[in-house]
Amino acid sequence: MLTAQPLDVLTHIRHGFFTREGGVSTGIYASLNCGYGSDDDKGAVRENRARVAQAVGAESDALLTVHQIHSPTVKRVVGTWEPANAPQADAMVTDRPSIALAVLAADCAPVLFADETARVIGAAHAGWKGAFTGVLEATVKAMVELGATRERIVAAIGPCISRDAYEVGPEFRARFIDADNGNAQWFTPSALDGHFMFDLPGYAAARLDAAGIATVATLGLCTYGDEKRFFSYRRTTHRGEPDYGRQISTIMLRP
After folding, report:
1. Residues 124, 135: contact at Cβ < 8 Å?
2. Where along the chain do its domains lie?
């Protein structure tokens, strides 16, 4: 379990960016695969998620994930649900203690949020599409509606694919430049003519900075480049493997 210093110092918060280590799954899912959307044994996933819940002091049924769809949709959480009934969204916010908001990722950026004074937390799954369409700003807005203030919100971006590993085509870059010429800074030419390397964590951090929150921290760890610790959708795709695991990141208000 990895933590971010700006969240570590908040006494009413428990959080963790979990790696792929410390679980019971085997094969390509070894070992802490927490994604029910994978083809892994569901009993193994359930046990892995129970271990995550225990690590942050939550009940197993209070570790909540949504059905992620790469959208800007935010779910306000007031109670728990069964994994099979998870709502479609890519972020959650709550002011309820003992509910562990969690997001899954395997290259996309997991982002955890907290306003300790207001006792409001959030968690977002930000792939390029979610970040581009505003999931991070929508999470901040939903927290403010629960009583948080932008000047107190702390956010931490967990392990995700880095610029060194994220090659994209010209049409991908054009979409960002058409939206804002300033987005050119997140792209550098790749070795393949006409292609570029995209800085997802840098782009996400800039969106959060522009949202006016107090602190934005980035762990700076690449999921693609560290196979021992992280699952990676892109690494799996490059190898032609049939499926991949998902690591989980979670945040909870202490009871």
Report:
1. yes
2. 5-160+216-253
